[in-house]
Amino acid sequence: MISLNTTGATSAVSYYLGQNNRNLQKSLTRLSSGYRINSAVDDPGGLAVSMKLSASIRQTDALSANVGNAISFLQTQDGVLSVASSILLRLSELATLATDSVLSSDAAAYDVEFKELQADISDLLDEEFNGVPLFSNPESVLAVVTSTNNQTAAITKLDLGAIEGDIDVGTLTSITTAALALTAVGALDIAIQDLAELRAQNGAEQSRMTFAQDILAVNSTNLQAANSRIMDVDIAAESTNYARLRIIQEAGLAVLAQANTSTASLLRLLD
Q1: String of b and e for 151-189 (b: at least 16 CB within 10 Å)?
Q2: Which residue has the higher pLDDT, 68 or 265?
Q3: What residues does each domain of the chain span?
Q4: 35 beta partners
Q5: Is this model's pTM higher than 0.90 or not?
Q6: How confident is residue 263, by pLDDT bands cut at 50, 70 and 90?
Q7: What does DSSP assign to residue 35?
Q8: In sequence order, what are the residues at sequence separation of 6 or more whose Cβ sits closer than 8 angstroms to the Cβ of residue 19?
Q9: 45-230 domain in CATH 3.40.50.360?
Q10: What pairs with residue 158 in β-bridges?
């Protein structure tokens, strides 16, 4: 049957051209955005999973920042403890020098510096990190969340005041005599040991926080990789798909032109 009113071939070609054009536009969108999923209709299930993964990534990165702040707190604390260590070592050196009765005439000079350094230890107690005291008496802890399942670890506001107590001015009045200097040496040995323990505790907490940050970094990397497999377009595969769709489109346009030519040929039969 030859009909002028209904051209089934032309309608079919137009339909498939429309379908192919939509796929071609979708492929162009993917290639230009870099994402396989650009709207919910592209992959509803994949988009839902990606949203959950994105939330987990942001939470993990935020936790990593929090742990990083805790590490900075501990590093600042250790910096102050390092200064305190230098002061104690100098105090011990001065006290040891003052035990030499042969140089007793220099003891008064040693004593001046000794008292100044004692005051410096006291000043260190007021050091802060972003408004948060580094030390407290008695010592206290700050809880830091280290994982997305709310596991926590403590960082300690150490009791540096105990070190000050070991070398308190009221106890060590001076090192102007060999006897007083010997007393000071004994007290300073205790203070140095106590400070060493504080620094060891600080180091252990830094180590624990560093491992926690490493775990968070690994988790974030893995989550991003998982999300990428869902959301990101495979450029090579999509480029191939785009080229295929372009060929189909050009072929469809050629077929549509041929179908229209056939209709025109029928009209010429009526001439």
Answers
A1: eebebbbbbbbbbbebbeeeebebbbebebbebbbebbe
A2: 68
A3: 45-230, 235-271
A4: 232
A5: no
A6: low
A7: B
A8: none
A9: no
A10: 135
